[in-house]
Automatic annotation (TrEMBL):
Transmembrane segments: none
Organism: Aurantimonas aggregata
Record flagged with keyword Cytoplasm: yes
Name of the featured protein: dTTP/UTP pyrophosphatase
Cofactor(s) the protein needs: a divalent metal cation
UniProt xrefs under InterPro entries: ITPase-like_fam, Maf-like
UniProt-listed NCBIfam families: maf, PRK01441.1
Protein purpose: Nucleoside triphosphate pyrophosphatase that hydrolyzes dTTP and UTP. May have a dual role in cell division arrest and in preventing the incorporation of modified nucleotides into cellular nucleic acids.
HAMAP family: Maf
Location in or out of the cell: Cytoplasm
Length: 212
């Protein structure tokens, strides 16, 4: 019997790996891409998320072609937070995080995740998922405390809904897993559409759990 194609997650994000694991899927390899994520002039946040998710998959495929591992599913994603057309930068410095939190305070913003899957035969499929999130008005103490926590580091928009900032959310419309970085419903439907045996993986996981 030919070996089943590998599943490669083209990501260095621990959140994306956790989300996939939550859905019962264990990638065989992680191949993070190192890309320039700067938006192009007048690029809509939605287009940016789509473009970068595709670029991450393509970068992983270029690396894979040098590794001779046989056919593979390659999955990637990119998350962008925006207020209107304005992209909130990924927070690397405390100043970025503070500016982001001040902008998001008391307002509704959008979180877009582009998901890209390249199947073992080379077919490329994409999804773009949007979630609307409204934050409460943040007090000075909220912002200072949150900055001190460090949870903003490396996160799109300078916050992580799965942590302390979950308490800032007044209202959310759309997928929660999309905000964390990988919309599970859309990701699993992409995988299933390309013939990835999701339920076979679940059954294998159940047997392992029973044996434990
Ligand atoms: C808004 C939000 C983002 N994030 C994270 C998810 C992503 O890791 C990050 C968005 O940046 P991305 O550029 O999408 O991803 P990344 O560089 O961290 O990982 P990779 O490109 O290797 O896949 O922000 C949260 O964890 N929680 C949130 O609530």
């Amino acid at each position: 019997m030919p070996a089943r194609p590998l599943l490669v997650l083209a990501s260095g994000s621990p959140r994306r790996l956790q989300l996939l694991n939550q859905a019962g899927i264990e990638p065989d390899r992680l191949l993070p891409a190192d890309l320039d994520e700067t938006p192009q002039r007048n690029e809509h946040p939605r287009s940016l998320a789509k473009r970068l998710s595709k670029a991450k998959a393509e970068s992983a495929i270029a690396t894979l072609s040098e590794m001779d591992l046989g056919p593979a599913f390659v999955l990637s994603a990119d998350t962008v937070v925006s207020v209107g057309r304005q992209v909130m930068p990924k927070a690397e410095l405390v100043e970025d995080a503070m500016a982001n939190l001040r902008t998001l305070s008391g307002r509704t913003h959008r979180v877009y995740t582009g998901v890209c899957l390249v199947g073992p035969k080379g077919a490329l499929r994409q999804r773009l998922v949007e979630t609307r999130v409204r934050f409460k008005r943040l007090s000075r103490e909220d912002i200072d405390g949150y900055l001190a926590s460090g949870e903003w580091r490396g996160k799109a928009g300078g916050y992580a809904i799965q942590g302390l900032a979950g308490s800032f959310v007044v209202r959310m419309v759309g997928s929660y897993t999309n905000v964390v970085g990988l919309p599970l419903y859309e990701t699993l439907s992409l995988l299933a559409g390309e013939g990835y045996d999701i339920h076979g993986r679940w059954k294998a996981a159940t047997v392992e759990a029973e044996d434990a």
